[in-house]
Write a structure and sequence with these properties.
11 helices, mainly alpha, 74% helix, single chain, 312 residues
Length: 312
């Protein structure tokens, strides 16, 4: 039988262990808060420095005029348009393929050699450096297929880079949908595809949009893969001609296209303009602001779609 002194000792030990666990929890919580605050400060200091350095170029003239080599006053109008056009084209190719592959992996794939081969391919593609994908695009799309340096070749190279990200994010987002939703839909007589299209995909849309955000930032800021596929120059564009079959048309997918990220590297390394540093700072600031705007827009659309799916 335990004595009174033993019970008091156990009570003191329990209180000591509780205080120690509480102290450890507070320390761990403080470390996590500090890590989060450090990341936020790092992001805002990095973005703030770039935007502050390029603040003099953030005007309509800089965003709409073409570059002027060997003289001051040039802008990034064609390069900004090329980046947006390449973003739209690459997203049009990669998002449906990636989401479709994610649906297959989450809803239809069963453990087999094919499934293991697909996962191995995704992991390998996600680990490839972008410069290697650019060299692959140079060999296949430009030399073998004969497309030449073009927006389409750049979009195909970026599709290869982005497919693993979208596929894995789409798969995990679909798997995180509560199984009760799917079971209830099937119990009411809906087919598997109807359940996926009308229930699972809307519920997984916020998570899928997170992958699209990552892809958007990578497309807009990618340079290494585009050096060997889209090219480092742009022909004079006629913005009054929107026929995609004409070479000078901005919508021609088979023309060379120097993107904003490539131009930033080029003007900073070659220094063909007297104000090359100012142009490079302005281009970097435009890149940062554009990526922020894409992220904010995607978050807003994700929340709007989530509210709509819940209302339905």
């Amino acid at each position: 039988m335990a004595t009174t002194s033993d019970l008091q000792t156990d009570r003191h030990l329990g209180q000591g262990n509780h205080k120690s666990a509480f102290r450890t929890d507070r320390i761990a919580t403080g470390i996590f808060y500090a890590a989060g605050i450090f990341l936020v400060l790092l992001l805002f200091s990095f973005a703030g420095y770039i935007i502050y350095s390029g603040r003099a170029s953030l005007n309509l003239h800089f965003l709409t005029t073409p570059p002027l080599f060997m003289q001051k006053g040039g802008g990034v109008g064609p390069q900004l348009f090329n980046s947006i056009y390449l973003l739209i084209l690459a997203s049009t190719l990669s998002v449906p393929l990636g989401v479709g592959a994610g649906i297959y992996m989450a809803e239809y794939a069963r453990p087999s050699g094919l499934t293991r081969a697909i996962r191995l391919s995704l992991e390998t593609l996600s680990a490839l450096p972008s410069i290697v994908v650019g060299l692959f695009g140079l060999l296949i799309f430009i030399n073998i297929l004969g497309w030449g340096f073009s927006i389409l070749a750049g979009a195909m190279a970026l599709t290869i880079l982005n497919l693993p990200v979208i596929t894995r994010v789409a798969e995990e987002s679909i798997k995180n949908v509560p199984p009760s939703l799917k079971e209830g839909s099937l119990a009411l007589g809906a087919t598997h595809w109807q359940t996926i299209w009308r229930l699972i995909l809307p519920a997984a849309t916020p998570g899928i949009l997170s992958g699209v955000i990552l892809v958007t930032g990578r497309i807009f800021g990618e340079a290494a893969a585009l050096l060997f596929t889209a090219g480092m120059s742009s022909p004079p564009l006629n913005f009054s001609d929107w026929n995609p079959l004409h070479y000078a048309s901005p919508l021609n997918p088979l023309r060379p296209a120097e993107t904003l990220a490539v131009y930033t590297w080029k003007v900073n390394s070659e220094g063909l303009a007297p104000d090359a540093r100012q142009i490079a700072d302005g281009s970097a600031a435009v890149l940062i602001i554009t990526v922020f705007l894409f992220n904010i827009l995607a978050r807003y659309l994700g929340k709007a779609l989530q509210r709509r799916s819940r209302a339905c």
